[in-house]
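The material for today's practical consists of a large collection of protein records. Read left to right, the C-alpha cells trace the chain's path through space. An example says more than a description, so a record of this kind follows:
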Amino acid sequence: MADRPKLLVIDDGERYVELAHALLRDYDYATRCDLPGPCWECPARPGCTLTHAHDAGQADEALAKNPDVDVVLLDVAFDVPEERLLTARRVPEKARKRLQGIEILAHLRRARGELPVILMTSREELAYEEAAEALAVDEFATLAGADAFDARALGLLVERVLARRREMPEAGGYAWGSSPEMARVRRDVSVLARTSLPMLLLGETGTGKSALAERVIHPATRREGPFIAVDLSALPETLMASELFGTAKGAFSGALDRRGRFEEA
C-alpha cells in the first residue's frame, strides 16, 4: 500500500466524487485522466468527467490505469443508459438501475477479489432488497450509512477499512494470495467459521485442505481444543476402527487402553 492510500469513486453523477474531494483530501484518487496533481487543484476540473468512473466499464478502465487502488467508494443507484448497465445476475431486471451498484460489486469481486468496497448507502435502504443479502457474507464490503456525509466519520470509516485490509495478509498465518478464487474461499470460510456447523472441505491432494482447517477454521471455532488430523489413506482398513474409536485393555491380544481420535477431538 502506498504512503497515501488511493481511492476510486464509482458513481453515475458527481455527488460522491465532489463529496470525497471536499472531505477526503489526504488520499490520492484513481481517475481516467493522465494529468498530474489532485483534481480539485486542476485548471481543467470544471466540466471534467474523468475524475471517477460512471459505470462498470469505466471502473475497469480506471482500475487498469490504477492497479494500486486501495478502497472503492461505490454508489448503488445508476441512472445511465441501458447499454452501459451490467446484465442483471443478482438483482431483478426491473431493478437494474436502482441496484446497479450491487452488480458492480459482484463484478469487482470476480475481477479484483478482496478489494475493499464502501457502498454509499445504508443497511436500512437495502433492508428489503433480496439481492442485498449477498452483502451480509461479503467480508470486504462496508455500508457507509450516515457516515457518508460527515467529513470526520467518512474519513474514519475509510481508515478502518484500510486498517482491516492491512491486517488481512497475516490473518490466521495462512497465505491467501490475491486471486479472486482465493478471495471467494476466504469470504466463505470467514462466514462459516463463525458458526458451529460441521464443514466438509473437498479438493485434490496437496490443495491445502488440512492447512486451511488447522490455521484458519480451527483457531476461529475451536481454539481452546486440540486440532486432530487423521490421514485415512495411510490407515489399513483393519486398524481404522481402533484408530478412530480407541481400544480397551484386553479387547484383543496386546490391546491397551487408548483413546481414539474422536475422543481426543
